[in-house]
Amino acid sequence: MIVIDTSIAFKWFNTVEPGFEKAISLLEQHLQQKETILVPDLLIYELTNAWTTKTSLTYKEVSKNLLLLERVKLKIQPVSFNLCRKASQLAKKYHLSVYDAIYAVIAKENKCYLYTADAKFKSKTNLAFIRVIQ
Question: Boundaries of each PIN domain copy (predicted)?
Answer without folding.
Answer: 2-123
